[in-house]
Fold this protein.
Amino acid sequence: MSRKKKTGGWRRFQGEDFFLKKAQGRGLVSRAYFKLQELDAKFDLVKPRQGILELGAAPGGWVRYIEDKLSGHQNLYIAVDPSPFKSSGLAKVIRGKSNEPRVSEEIERILGSKKLDLVLSDMAPNISGVRIVDDSASRELAEDALNTAFKYLAPGGKMVAKLFQGSEAQSFTAVTKECFLKTVLFKPSASRSESREIFVVADGFKAGR
Ligand SMILES: C[S@@+](CC[C@H](N)C(=O)[O-])C[C@H]1O[C@@H](n2cnc3c(N)ncnc32)[C@H](O)[C@@H]1O
């Protein structure tokens, strides 16, 4: 192994070990908590008295971050996933998939006439190992998040959607640039360096377009 490779590997190991240890030390389910913490610090996402919808909430790292931050405040927070996850009770939990009609019906029942300020998606497909298949599945989930934003986001609202880096991410951001005032691609340092995940952060929803 070359010296360069060794150094890179060591750095990566140190970085991962840091977030893993930090998560374990705080009794967190995974490093995911720190990804949202970093996204929030950079893009000012999670705020009291706002309407938040999270897609792909299990096993609950982001739920824990949002509930920690919003504890004691009045918030409308809906969290969706087909798999189970823990909540302190602040989140209105919906078990199901983002594209299921009964999930939309439940979201509409909870929202009534209200609109959301933030749509978050950390949804990820089951990985097949075939890059083109996985990229397209991840793009589909990001499209689901965008469709959800179209239905429920208030003008000026924000959306964060995860997908895999590559041409799908580029073409997806071309779409979000049309529908939002600003779009940024961001990879938090808590995200594993070998993971191709990246977050599209879109701000300033142009409703009605
Ligand atoms: C990386 S995990 C999310 C981690 C979570 N943000 C956390 O902090 O613990 C991806 C999740 O996406 C969920 N998922 C995949 N497809 C989905 C869909 N169509 N609707 C809702 N959730 C979905 C999976 O069940 C899985 O729990």
User: Anything to note?
Assistant: The first helix runs from residue 3 to 25.
